[in-house]
Structure to design on (1087 residues):
């Protein structure tokens, strides 16, 4: 006997953001992990990692095949809430080069429906360096709009206004001897690193060595994802893994 | 069973007889009984107390048989080839120990018998050689049997085995390792139809369960009574143990498990004995008691510490010193419950409650390995409830009553692992494998549907969405047999074999303190002290002090997989690693304690302080009834409390607490939190619960209704971290996620797939997946103790007595003292984050 019977309802998103200034542009951080740029009517998501499950299955590790559906559902939720005229997927949209080819027809149709009537930009990432197969949208390595530049991996000495993903930021805080770890946005006001949007993606603690050089030491903030809200902390309040 | 057999040669061959006589011994009745069982080609379970010569008895039939079959030239007919006897023990160390012990008879009798061990530590060249030139007797572990069975050469080596000896069987069968071994035995019986088994066990509540485990079951027999059973040989008697409860003049603590009040008494006891084993229930209690004993150790008695997370080298050193008689006492956990023969221990001290009558009996058996002299033991209760529990355990011991847990139902994650292992050895017919598996006792009720689902899981993950068919690990080879799709999956299997999934551990290394020197980087080098759970280290910030390896240590830093610590000068550690009693109170002892409480006539056996305490409870509130549930309500510091006393163990109480708070929330009673110990549960909130009950707005029968195990449980499980931890274990055993292997962790944490994420996705999209079912079965038996909670709710139906009080009752004090020690779960995480963030706002705005 298993108690797991009822399917849980699909989560609905409210288009309410935490507004901050990034290199002079007003952007909104959403608790789904998406970034909303009202002036450009643009929604940005990073590291969707579609078809991660099947990518593992090819090697004999049979992860649940529901990750693509779940990520798509979540994406549909935020697109429904913001109704953007432009969507930017910040790279690693597919877990491997053949990911878009493996995408089952139903999901391909769902994705195509989401793309209808809006501009869609696929930024290439290290997992998906080539354009997705038979899907709409433009593929480019990076894109510049007004004061911001969008690329997958952060660049050394990038000019202010870089928006990127790749690192899957996560943060940990401690209180009363207990700790809580969550995915998060990480920013110093000049550069913004988005959390991974895909459902089967882990996170890398922002205090890990891989982050050194990205932000002034202790001179950045994180916005941890919560239910219906974000939790802001300065770096000095965070703890390592 | 008669030891003498009129027909046929004597059971004990002359050369064996002479060896016994040369040592001034004579074969004991049970040793001869086992020889006769062997002559009749039957399997047997031997139940004997320690010190009865159990191991030699188990090996005698094999030794005599081998002695009668001389080694012939290789290749000659009738020659001895292949393994004759396999000995399987739960502990690697035990296999090594037995190898040493067998040398005496083998050399003394002058037998030409090769005995070898095969464990995780055996070098690969020796393993290879063993497959080509097998020893006569192979001493090994359940995991090694699984590995041998997963490869064609290994199967060949195990073909023709005559005897399998299973040591410490009572301990093996209560875990998933027992499931794995049962499946291995079923496979061995197919390879060697003449196979006999001999189980060696301590006294258990249901010997028939173990007897059934040892032999082939028919599979279709639903009736427990009609199972096939091995013969039973018992060694009766031995002197009754001499057990006392420590009588102290100190004030008995209300709560806690440290028994700090009794430390001077324990030290005195150690002083008066030759060698004492001091058992505690958890690692942190062992650390704390060891510290406290050394604090009063004016005579510098050699007192050592032994528990499972200490460095292996250090543990071996302690064991060697013990064997050499150089120690006066060892403070230890269940790491010493099993096995190694010490010989010289003359006293067992059990600190804290024994939690189970059989557990106590086994621990006491560690003292005095001569069975005709009584074992001596002293029980040291650490708080007032434990006094009653010790009293109940003492009564059970005198009556010879046992409360070992019942046999398990075979786990499906273990079955999945086994099926992949079978496929690694070669193609198999599902029908034949199903029949074979059902001959194993734990799987005799396995349905064909569950078997097929498990095979599908192994092949493609078993998802309703059949998208992975083309990546399947098992493929049909055209004539109905399933074969491994690629040899690399066999490699995957070998890395993953076994059912012990360790919590992620970090090594602890001693370095010089940063605080003491100048601001230099933490130095390298330094001694390895042992390993510690990652979750514990997660709580620490540099500078925090904690107890480990018998010292107060200062946390310095984490470097890769190592925790750097330095010696601290602090008097007391800042961070206690509190885990409460590790074992839940056994149902049997719980019932005895409830009966004792309800019957003031039985209190004369209790110390004065405890009697006074219970007397006050009777005066101010009421006594819990043996078959009902006492519920007290009272206000305290602007909050309202509800305390109940089910005596069903911390795990079941915790689950009950989670479910009660959910219900109270829905009823508008605004609960704030709850806390549980082994005996009681306290819930508190903003609303006056007592008034709600009195005015009929809250029905206790409704509140404690069994239906809480439905939807409320389902909703709570979604968030339960215990459930997620259980899922991770099942997923690793079943091979869905790979084990963490030392050295491979550096590959970047963002690419590893977290078990929590898989759990969430699976729960949402395929709630009846076989792995979730396995998780649920585990949780019901283990961490959440849902089965016991169900029994509790049925027991108290319509038998709830409510007492409204104006203040805390005497009986409620212990559980009230636990408030604030509990971890946070689920929704509380959000609250914690919110609070921390709001603090920041105040800081910024203030």
């Amino acid at each position: 006997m298993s108690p797991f019977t009822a399917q849980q309802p699909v989560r609905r998103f409210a288009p309410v953001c935490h507004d901050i200034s990034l290199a002079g542009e007003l952007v909104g951080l959403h608790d789904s992990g998406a970034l909303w740029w009202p002036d450009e009517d643009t929604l940005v998501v990073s590291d969707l990692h579609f078809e991660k499950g099947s990518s593992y299955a090819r090697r004999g590790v049979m992860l649940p095949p529901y990750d693509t559906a779940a990520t798509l559902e979540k994406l549909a939720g935020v697109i429904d809430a913001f109704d953007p005229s432009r969507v930017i997927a910040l790279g690693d949209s597919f877990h491997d080069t053949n990911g878009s080819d493996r995408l089952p027809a139903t999901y391909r149709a769902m994705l195509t429906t989401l793309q209808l009537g809006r501009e869609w930009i696929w930024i290439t990432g290290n997992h998906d360096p080539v354009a997705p197969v038979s899907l709409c949208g433009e593929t480019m390595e990076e894109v510049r709009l007004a004061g911001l530049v969008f690329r997958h991996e952060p660049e050394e000495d990038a000019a202010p206004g870089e928006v990127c993903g790749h690192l899957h930021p996560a943060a940990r805080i401690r209180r009363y001897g207990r700790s809580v770890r969550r995915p998060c946005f990480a920013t110093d006001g000049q550069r913004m690193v988005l959390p991974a949007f895909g459902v089967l993606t882990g996170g890398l603690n922002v205090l890990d060595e891989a982050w050194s050089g990205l932000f002034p030491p202790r001179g950045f903030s994180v916005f941890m994802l919560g239910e219906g809200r974000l939790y802001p902390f300065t770096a000095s309040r965070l703890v390592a893994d | 069973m008669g030891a003498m057999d009129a027909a046929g040669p004597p059971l004990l061959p002359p050369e064996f007889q002479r060896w016994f006589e040369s040592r001034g011994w004579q074969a004991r009745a049970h040793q001869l009984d086992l020889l006769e069982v062997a002559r009749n080609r039957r399997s047997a379970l031997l139940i004997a107390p320690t010190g009865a010569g159990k191991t030699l008895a188990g090996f005698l039939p094999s030794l005599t048989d081998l002695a009668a079959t001389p080694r012939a030239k290789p290749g000659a007919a009738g020659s001895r080839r292949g393994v004759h006897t396999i000995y399987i023990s739960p502990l690697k160390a035990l296999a090594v120990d037995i190898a040493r012990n067998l040398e005496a008879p083998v050399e003394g009798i002058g037998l030409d018998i090769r005995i070898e061990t095969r464990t995780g530590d055996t070098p690969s060249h020796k393993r290879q050689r063993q497959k080509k030139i097998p020893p006569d007797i192979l001493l090994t572990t359940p995991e090694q049997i699984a590995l041998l069975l997963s490869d064609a050469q290994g199967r060949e080596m195990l073909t023709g085995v005559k005897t399998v000896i299973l040591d410490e069987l009572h301990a093996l069968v209560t875990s998933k390792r027992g499931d794995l071994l049962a499946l291995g035995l079923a496979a061995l019986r197919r390879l060697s139809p003449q196979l006999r088994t001999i189980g060696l066990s301590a006294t258990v509540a249901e010997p028939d369960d173990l007897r059934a485990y040892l032999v082939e079951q028919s599979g279709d027999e639903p009736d427990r009574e009609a199972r096939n059973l091995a013969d039973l040989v018992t060694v009766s008697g031995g002197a009754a143990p001499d057990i006392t409860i420590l009588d102290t003049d100190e004030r008995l603590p209300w709560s806690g498990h440290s028994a700090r009040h009794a430390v001077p008494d324990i030290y005195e006891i150690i002083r008066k004995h030759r060698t004492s084993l001091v058992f505690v229930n958890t690692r942190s209690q062992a650390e704390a008691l060891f510290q406290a004993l050394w604090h009063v150790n004016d005579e510098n008695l050699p007192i050592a510490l032994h528990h499972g997370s200490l460095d292996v080298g250090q543990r071996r050193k302690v064991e060697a010193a013990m064997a050499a008689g150089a120690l006066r006492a060892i403070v230890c956990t269940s790491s010493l419950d099993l096995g190694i023969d010490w010989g010289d221990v003359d006293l067992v001290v059990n600190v804290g409650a024994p939690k189970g009558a059989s557990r106590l009996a086994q621990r006491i058996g560690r003292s005095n390995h001569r069975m005709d002299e009584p074992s001596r033991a002293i029980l040291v209760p650490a708080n007032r409830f434990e006094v009653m529990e010790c009293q109940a355990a003492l009564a059970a011991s005198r009556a010879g009553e046992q409360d070992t847990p019942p046999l398990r139902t075979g786990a499906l994650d273990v079955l999945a692992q086994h099926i992949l292992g079978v496929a690694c050895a070669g193609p198999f017919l599902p029908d034949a494998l199903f029949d074979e598996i059902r001959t194993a006792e734990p799987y005799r009720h396995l349905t064909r549907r569950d078997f097929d689902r498990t095979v599908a899981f192994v092949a493609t993950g078993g998802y309703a969405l059949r998208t992975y068919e083309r990546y399947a690990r098992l493929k049909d080879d055209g004539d109905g047999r399933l074969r491994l799709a690629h040899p690399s999956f066999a490699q995957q299997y070998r890395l993953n074999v076994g059912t012990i999934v360790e919590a992620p551990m970090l090594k602890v290394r001693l370095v010089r303190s940063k605080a003491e020197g100048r601001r230099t980087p933490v130095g390298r080098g330094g001694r390895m002290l042992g390993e510690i759970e990652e979750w514990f280290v997660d709580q620490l910030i540099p500078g925090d002090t904690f107890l480990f390896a018998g010292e107060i240590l200062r946390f310095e830093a984490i470097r890769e997989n190592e925790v750097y610590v330095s010696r601290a000068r602090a008097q007391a550690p800042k961070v206690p690693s509190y885990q409460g009693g590790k074992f839940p109170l056994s149902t049997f002892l719980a019932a005895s304690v409830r009966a004792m409480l309800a019957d003031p006539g039985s209190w004369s056996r209790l110390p004065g302080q405890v009697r006074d305490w219970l007397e006050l409870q009777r005066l101010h509130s009421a006594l819990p009834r043996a078959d009902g549930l006492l519920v007290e309500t009272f206000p305290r510091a602007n909050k309202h409390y509800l305390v109940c006393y089910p005596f069903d163990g911390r795990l079941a109480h915790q689950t009950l607490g989670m479910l009660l708070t959910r219900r109270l929330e829905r009823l508008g009673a605004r609960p704030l939190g709850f806390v549980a110990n082994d005996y009681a549960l306290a819930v508190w909130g903003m609303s006056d619960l007592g008034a709600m009950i009195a005015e009929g707005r809250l029905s206790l029968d409704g509140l404690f209704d069994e239906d809480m195990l439905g939807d409320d449980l389902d909703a709570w499980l979604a968030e339960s971290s215990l459930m997620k931890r259980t899922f991770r274990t099942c997923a690793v055993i079943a091979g869905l996620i790979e084990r963490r292997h030392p050295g491979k962790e550096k590959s970047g944490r963002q690419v590893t797939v977290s078990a929590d994420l898989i759990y969430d996705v699976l729960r949402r999209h395929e709630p009846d997946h076989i792995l979730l079912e396995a998780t649920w079965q585990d949780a019901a038996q283990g961490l959440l103790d849902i089965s016991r909670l169900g029994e509790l709710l049925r027991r108290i139906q319509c038998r709830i007595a409510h007492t409204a009080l104006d203040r805390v009752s005497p009986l409620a004090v212990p559980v009230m003292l636990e408030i604030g020690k509990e971890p946070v779960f689920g929704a509380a995480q959000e609250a914690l984050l919110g609070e921390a963030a709001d603090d920041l706002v105040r800081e910024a705005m203030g």
